[in-house]
C-alpha cells in the first residue's frame, strides 16, 4: 500500500503551528516513514501543486494571492485540515478587522502603500473553501496533529474535544484562579487542548484555543464586570487571539471601545 | 554585445509569503542590477497593539514569530519595564537569561540541522539527509528538543510560552524540575562539542568581505537579553538612541522595511555577536575556537554556521551555571507601577538585534508601538553580500548553480525566509 501523502501549506501566520511537526524530534523521522511529506517549505519539501491525501493549512487569508492559492490547495487535497487559530478563526492579526481602518493603518506603516496588496479584512480558511477538520490553538500542539493524521488515515472521525479549560483544571487539580484570586480567566468559555497551562501557572487563561462548546460568554462578561473590569477591558478579554470566532466576537463587540460610564458610543 | 538577464523568483515562502524574489540583471558580464524583494503579508501588529493594556503586550508580540517568541517577549518586557520605578529581582533577571538560552538552543539547532546542513551535505531536506547521516540529524533534533524543554520549564510550552510577565515570571519552576533539566543539559555538552567539530569539518566557501557588525554588548558577560548596542565602527548606543543612527525605509518592491546604520548596510546576528564579544566567552570555548582554527573577527559570512554551533555550546554552559545555583524565590515576579512615557527595549534574538519602542499612556494603555526585527535589519547586507558573492562565484555560471549559491548566501543570515529550503526558482531571460 502506498504511503499516505501529506502537504503543509503556510498562509499569513507566524510559522509557530508548523513547529508542531518540526518539534517532534525523532518522531518526525518516524512520521516521514509512515507518510510521504510532499510539500512543507520549512522542512525543505517544495511541490505545492501535487495531489495529497491530507493538506494541513497554517495561517489566515489576508491577500488576494492567498484567496487564489487556497482554491488550488483545496482542489488538490482529499482532506483539508486547518492548523491553529489563524487558519481556523483568522487569529490574532484579525484584530485589525475590528477597527475597519485597513487603509489608514497601511498608509501609517508603509511609505509606499501602493505596493501593499492586502485584503480589507483577515479571513479564516473556511470562509473561502470547505474545511474537513479544524485544529484550534495558538499554537496547536504535536499531539493534536498526530491524532488528526492517525484518525484520518484510519478513516475514523477525529475526536473533537470541545470541553472547557475548567474541566482540564479539575482533572489536573489546578486551583481556580478566578475563585481564589479574582482573575478574569477565560477558561469557562475556552476549549481545552493546552492542558490548562495558564491556570497551572497561576494566571488567567486568555482564550488561545477558541470557544468551547456552549460557551456562556455573556454570563462570563457579567462576572468580569463583577470583578471590576471596565467595559473595554472586558472586550479585550474576548477580542484577543480568536477575536473573529463568533461566540467571542459577539460578546466582545458589546463592550468594545466603551469606556467606563459611557456605554452609548 | 550579449545581454543576459536573470530573474530569480521566490514562489512561496514561509514568513515571506507569495512574491519574494531576487532579480539579477547581467549585461556584458557585469552585474548591473540586483534586487531582493520580499513580500510578507503585513499583519499590522504595531497598529493593533494600540489601545491594549501594557500587561497584554508580552502575549501579543510573541505571535510575531513562532520560531523566536521569547525574543519578542523579552524585548517588549525590557521596553515596558524601563517605565517602572521598581527593579526586577536578581532571580528574575537571571532566569530570563536562562529562558532565552532555551530559544537560542532550539533556534540554532533547527537552523543548522533542518535548514543549513542539507546545503553543505548535498541533500534536498533534512529527512532525506537523515537516511545517510542519521546520527548527525538525531543529535540536532535532540539539541533542538532540549532547547524547547528549557523554554517549557519557564513558559509551559515552547511556542508562544505563557510564563513571562511584567516584573518577572508567572511561575517559578520547582527545584526538582530544574535539577532534572541540568542533568540533561550536562549530558548534551559532549554532543554540542561534537557538533562544533562536525560543522568545522565541512567544506565552507572561503569568501571574506568587509561589513559593519552590530550587536549588544554587556560588561558582565556575552550579551543576550540586555546590554547596549556596540558596532565594529566603535559606536556605543543606548536603546533610546537607536533611532538617531538606524533608519528604516520602504523599498517599493518589498513589504519588509529596510534598515541602515547612518546610511550603511550592516550585519546583526551570531557572527556579528561573536566578532564583537568573543573575548567574553569562557576559557573552554576560547580553546574550542583555537581547535577549529576560527580566528575572530571573521569576515567570512559562511562562518555564521560555526558561530551558531559555538553559541549552542555557550548557552548550554550558561544555563548549567545559572541553574546549578537555583533557589526557589519567595515570588516569581515583582509588582510594578509603570509610569506614562516612552519605553525602549532590545535584546539579541537568535538571528540578531530586536528593538522595540512603546508609548504608554496614563491609563496604562499602549498609544504607539514600533518594532524593528533582525531580518529587516539584515536585508541591505544580504543584498550587498549577494552582489559581491555572486560576482565572485561567476556570473557566467548556469542559472541553477547561481540559484543554489544565492540560497546558501541568504541562508547564512537565517532570515525568516530561510525556512524554505528551495526557495528560489530561477527564470532566465536572455536578450
TrEMBL record, chain A:
Top-level taxon of origin: Bacteria
Keywords associated with the record: 3Fe-4S, Iron, Iron-sulfur, Metal-binding, Oxidoreductase
InterPro entries: Hydrogenase_assoc-protein, NADH_UbQ_OxRdtase-like_20kDa, NiFe_Hase_small_N_sf
Domain NADH:ubiquinone oxidoreductase-like 20kDa subunit: residue ranges: 14-152
Cofactors, names only: [3Fe-4S] cluster
Pfam families from the UniProt entry: Oxidored_q6
Protein name: Sulfhydrogenase subunit delta
Species for this entry: Marinobacterium alkalitolerans
Taxonomic lineage of the native organism: Bacteria, Pseudomonadati, Pseudomonadota, Gammaproteobacteria, Oceanospirillales
TrEMBL record, chain B:
UniProt xrefs under SUPFAM superfamilies: HydB/Nqo4-like
Signal peptide range: none
InterPro entries associated with the record: Ni-dep_hyd_lsu, Ni-dep_hyd_lsu_Ni_BS, NiFe-Hase_large
Annotated keywords: Oxidoreductase
Taxonomy, superkingdom: Bacteria
Pfam family, one: NiFeSe_Hases
Protein name: Nickel-dependent hydrogenase large subunit
Amino acid at each position: 500500500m502506498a504511503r499516505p501523502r501529506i502537504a503543509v501549506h503556510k498562509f499569513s501566520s507566524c510559522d509557530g503551528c508548523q513547529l508542531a511537526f518540526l518539534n517532534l524530534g525523532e518522531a518526525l523521522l518516524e512520521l516521514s516513514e509512515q507518510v510521504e511529506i510532499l510539500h512543507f517549505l520549512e522542512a525543505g519539501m517544495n511541490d505545492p501543486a501535487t495531489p495529497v491525501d491530507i493538506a494541513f493549512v497554517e495561517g489566515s487569508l489576508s491577500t488576494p494571492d492567498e484567496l487564489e492559492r487556497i482554491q488550488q490547495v483545496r482542489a488538490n487535497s482529499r482532506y483539508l485540515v486547518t492548523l491553529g487559530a489563524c487558519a481556523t478563526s483568522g487569529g490574532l492579526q484579525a484584530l485589525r478587522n475590528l477597527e475597519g481602518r485597513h487603509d489608514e493603518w497601511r498608509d501609517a506603516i508603509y511609505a509606499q502603500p501602493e505596493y501593499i496588496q492586502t485584503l480589507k479584512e483577515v479571513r479564516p480558511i473556511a470562509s473561502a473553501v470547505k474545511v474537513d477538520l479544524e485544529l484550534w490553538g495558538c499554537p496547536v500542539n504535536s499531539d493534536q496533529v498526530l491524532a488528526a493524521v492517525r484518525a484520518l488515515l484510519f478513516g475514523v472521525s477525529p475526536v473533537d474535544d470541545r470541553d472547557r479549560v475548567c474541566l482540564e483544571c479539575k482533572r489536573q487539580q489546578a486551583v481556580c484562579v478566578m475563585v481564589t484570586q479574582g482573575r478574569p480567566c477565560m477558561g469557562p468559555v475556552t476549549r481545552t487542548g493546552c492542558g490548562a497551562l495558564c491556570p497551572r501557572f497561576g494566571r488567567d487563561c486568555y482564550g488561545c484555543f477558541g470557544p468551547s462548546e456552549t460557551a456562556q460568554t455573556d454570563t462570563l462578561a457579567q462576572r468580569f464586570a463583577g470583578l471590576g473590569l471596565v467595559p473595554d477591558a472586558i472586550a479585550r478579554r474576548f477580542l484577543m487571539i480568536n477575536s473573529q470566532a463568533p461566540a467571542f466576537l459577539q460578546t466582545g463587540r458589546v463592550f468594545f471601545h466603551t469606556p467606563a460610564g459611557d456605554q452609548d458610543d | 554585445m550579449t545581454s543576459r538577464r536573470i530573474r530569480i523568483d521566490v514562489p512561496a515562502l514561509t514568513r515571506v509569503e507569495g512574491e519574494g524574489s531576487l532579480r539579477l540583471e547581467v549585461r556584458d558580464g557585469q552585474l548591473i542590477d540586483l534586487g531582493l524583494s520580499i513580500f510578507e503579508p503585513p499583519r499590522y501588529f504595531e497598529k493593533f497593539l494600540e489601545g491594549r493594556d501594557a500587561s497584554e503586550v508580552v502575549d501579543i508580540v510573541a505571535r510575531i514569530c513562532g520560531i523566536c517568541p521569547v525574543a519578542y517577549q523579552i524585548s517588549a518586557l525590557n521596553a515596558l519595564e524601563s517605565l517602572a520605578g521598581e527593579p526586577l529581582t536578581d532571580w528574575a533577571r537571571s532566569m530570563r537569561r536562562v529562558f532565552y538560552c532555551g530559544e537560542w538552543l532550539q533556534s540554532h539547532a533547527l537552523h543548522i540541522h533542518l535548514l543549513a546542513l542539507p546545503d553543505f551535505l548535498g541533500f534536498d531536506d533534512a529527512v532525506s539527509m537523515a537516511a545517510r547521516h542519521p546520527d548527525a540529524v538525531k543529535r540536532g533534533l535532540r539539541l533542538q528538543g532540549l532547547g524547547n524543554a528549557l523554554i517549557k520549564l519557564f513558559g509551559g510550552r515552547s511556542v508562544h510560552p505563557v510564563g513571562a510577565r511584567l516584573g518577572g515570571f508567572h511561575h517559578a519552576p520547582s527545584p526538582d524540575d530544574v535539577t532534572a533539566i541540568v542533568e540533561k543539559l550536562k549530558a548534551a555538552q559532549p554532543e554540542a562539542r561534537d557538533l562544533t567539530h562536525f560543522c568545522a569539518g565541512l567544506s565552507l566557501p572561503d569568501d571574506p568581505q568587509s561589513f559593519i557588525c552590530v550587536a549588544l554588548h554587556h560588561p558582565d558577560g556575552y550579551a543576550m537579553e540586555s546590554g547596549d548596542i556596540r558596532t565594529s565602527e566603535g559606536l556605543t548606543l543606548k536603546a533610546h538612541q537607536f533611532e538617531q543612527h538606524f533608519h528604516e525605509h520602504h523599498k517599493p518592491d518589498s513589504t519588509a522595511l529596510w534598515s541602515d546604520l547612518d546610511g550603511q548596510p550592516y550585519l546583526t546576528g551570531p557572527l556579528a555577536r561573536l566578532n564583537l564579544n568573543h573575548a567574553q566567552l569562557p576559557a573552554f570555548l576560547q580553546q574550542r575556537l583555537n581547535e577549529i582554527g576560527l580566528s575572530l573577527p571573521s569576515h567570512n559570512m559562511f562562518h555564521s554556521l560555526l558561530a551558531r554551533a559555538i553559541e549552542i555550546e555557550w548557552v548550554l554552559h550558561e544555563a548549567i551555571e545559572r541553574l546549578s545555583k537555583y533557589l526557589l524565590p519567595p515570588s516569581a515576579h515583582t509588582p510594578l507601577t509603570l509610569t506614562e512615557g516612552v519605553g525602549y527595549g532590545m535584546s539579541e534574538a537568535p538571528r540578531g538585534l530586536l528593538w522595540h519602542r512603546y508609548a504608554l499612556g496614563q491609563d496604562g494603555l499602549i498609544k504607539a508601538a514600533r518594532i524593528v526585527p533582525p531580518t529587516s535589519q539584515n536585508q541591505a547586507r544580504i543584498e550587498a553580500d549577494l552582489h559581491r558573492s555572486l560576482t565572485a562565484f561567476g556570473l557566467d555560471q548556469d542559472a541553477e548553480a547561481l540559484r543554489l549559491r544565492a540560497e546558501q548566501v541568504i541562508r547564512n543570515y537565517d532570515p525568516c525566509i530561510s525556512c524554505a529550503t528551495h526557495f528560489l526558482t530561477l527564470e532566465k531571460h536572455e536578450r
